Amino acid sequence: MDNTVSVGMNRTGLDMAPKSREKLVAFARQQAGRASNETAAWSELHKVHALEADRVGTVPVPARIKGMATTMLDTLKGNKPQVLIDKLGERLAYERTGVRLYEAFLLKVASASEGFAPDLEAVAAIRDDERSHFELLGKTLQQIGADPTAMTPCADVAGVMASGHLQVLTDPRTTIAQALNSLLAVELADNASWELLIELLQGAGHKDLAQGFTVALQTEETHLATVKAWLRQAVLEEAT
Predict the structure, then answer these.
(1) What are the tens digits of pLDDT across the range 43-56?
(2) For residue range 117-137, what is the model confidence (pLDDT) as tens digits?
(3) CB burial class (10 A; 0-12, 13-18, 19+) of residue 22?
(4) SS3 content of the chain, % helix, strand, coil (to 5)
(5) Residue 48 CB: number of other CB atoms within 10 A?
(6) Which residues make Cβ contacts (< 8 Å) with residue 211, sequence separation at least 6?
(7) Which whole-number Å values give the CA distances from 83 to 45, 68, 121, in the listed order?
(8) How far apart are CA 193 and CA 71, in angstroms?
(9) What separation in angstroms does the CA of 76 have from each of 80, 84, 153, 177?
(10) pTM: predicted TM-score of the whole model, two decimal places
(11) CA-based torsion, 84, 90, 93, 99: positive or negative
């Protein structure tokens, strides 16, 4: 795989068609004038749709006795256990996608014919960490009586968000640096989400579970630093 950004016949941009510049600019200005400057009606329509639309799914009612008891107890304490279950489901979906992303990255690194390429064993280690975090989240959901196979609303949204990263990683045309740029965004979101999840667990009184998640956060912080360093090395080596 060609692992560099090269100069070629890129036909985008006005400089590639100087004779057509004035015609193109005139057309763009003409089309821009078709849109109304009045945005109030458009905004009102969006507001109506937002009010009428259903939400992105629901958190399932616990089917197990333990789950029902936990939900009832948390509710009596004034908590909303469905929020915690939703975010746990989101993290589980995200970590599952993380395994797929690093699987795709492994293939890309292995096929690179030139340029910077991270150590394959180091990439595989991150993939394995993501898998262990996925398993940790599945066990946690079971511990509080929730169903780890259920697609919660936030898990659904996380899947949609991750689809762009999957496209970048699995596209055979993207370089290692471009893939790392996508993984950096993934790891940044991952770190922030683990921090929020720990805060939620502590607030709900699950301090023992929060302790285990703190270890996972420390691992994710290492992933973030590693991916950031790889991206920096890949870009700087290619630029010189």
Answers:
(1) 898 999 999 998 88
(2) 999 999 999 999 999 999 999
(3) exposed
(4) 75, 0, 25
(5) 10
(6) none
(7) 29, 15, 37
(8) 23
(9) 9, 15, 24, 51
(10) 0.86
(11) negative
Task: Count CB atoms within 10 A of the CB of residue 116.
Answer: 21
Q: Where are the alpha helices (DSSP H) in 35-152?
A: 40-52, 65-76, 81-110, 120-143
Q: Quick one: pLDDT at residue 157?
A: 96
By C-alpha distance, which of 200, 180, 178, 176 is closest to 188? Answer: 180
The set of long-range contacts for 69-72, using a CB threshold of 8 Å and a minimum separation of 24, is 69/145, 70/144, 70/145, 71/145
Q: Dmax of the chain from CA atoms?
A: 74
Rg of the Cα atoms in the chain = 23
**Residue 172 DSSP SS3:** coil
Number of residues in the chain: 240
Contact assessment for residue 201 and residue 84, using Cβ atoms and an 8 Å cutoff:
yes
